[in-house]
Design goal:
Length: 253
């Protein structure tokens, strides 16, 4: 995971407030699948804000030149790439460039949210909405870090967005991101235990060490999209084991 830049605290707060507003709207409209995905994003923003608050003050000021107080401010690369506040006005090409260059979690999260909003805009052509969804997916995956397995939060966001596209824009087998079968296989690959193993642990979850409780919660989060996906899968693998996970998920805490 990318460590949040303390200088981006105000942007993280804006992201959090935007997500809270969107959750309220989604709840009023009855968009239950959207609510769950937004709450995952909200937890991520609040976690990053908490990380900034918990960092020692000396660490927050690291990488400063020892003679900074004597020098005139110099425009750094990150300063030059600092986006305007309203990324929703940016064309997709500019956001794609920002996403390719960004190394800050809050920038990538801002792009992910804006791109997802454009993807859900039914007034845009279907193919354009797919391009926006691809950008949202790219920004989310860049937050995982190069070569890192990534957290359950980013994986869940990945799975939720792909399911949303399959449901609302239709599957596309020529692109594995929008292939139901590929998403089903990716879901199974992310799960470390079988449904039967999860059920055994869930029956005695109060007795489990915190690490195993977290692992059960991770599996519950990583299977949140399955009810939307399952109807798009053909009989057989990976559909059959995922059906078992839908039933098992109701038992997880």
């Amino acid at each position: 995971m990318l460590w949040p830049d303390p200088a981006q605290c105000h942007r993280l707060a804006e992201i959090r407030d935007n997500l809270l507003a969107r959750i309220g709207e989604a709840e009023r409209e009855g968009w239950l699948g959207e609510v769950e995905g937004l709450k995952v994003s909200l937890a991520g923003a609040e976690d990053k804000l908490a990380q900034i608050d918990q960092r020692p003050a000396t660490n927050r000021r690291r990488s400063r030149h020892p003679h900074d107080q004597e020098r005139q401010p110099v425009s750094t690369f990150s300063d030059q790439r600092e986006p305007e506040r309203d990324l929703s006005t940016w064309p997709i090409e500019r956001l794609q460039t920002l996403t390719a260059d960004a190394h800050d979690w809050s920038q990538l999260e801002s792009v992910r949210i804006v791109a997802q909003q454009h993807a859900s805009d039914s007034s845009q052509p279907r193919e354009m909405r797919r391009h926006w969804a691809e950008l949202s997916l790219l920004a989310n995956r860049r937050m995982l870090g190069d070569g890192a397995e990534g957290s359950a939060r980013e994986l869940q966001q990945d799975f939720m967005l792909r399911t949303w596209v399959i449901e609302h824009l239709g599957p596309a087998d020529e692109n594995s991101d929008w292939s139901p079968e590929a998403l089903g296989a990716d879901t199974l690959a992310a799960l470390a235990m079988s449904p039967s193993e999860a059920v055994i642990l869930a029956t005695k979850w109060r007795e489990l060490p915190i690490e195993q409780i977290r692992e059960l919660r991770r599996h519950k989060n990583l299977t949140a999209h399955l009810e939307g996906l399952i109807g798009h899968l053909q009989p057989g693998p990976p559909r059959d084991p995922l059906l078992s996970w839908i039933e098992t998920r109701q038992l997880l805490h």
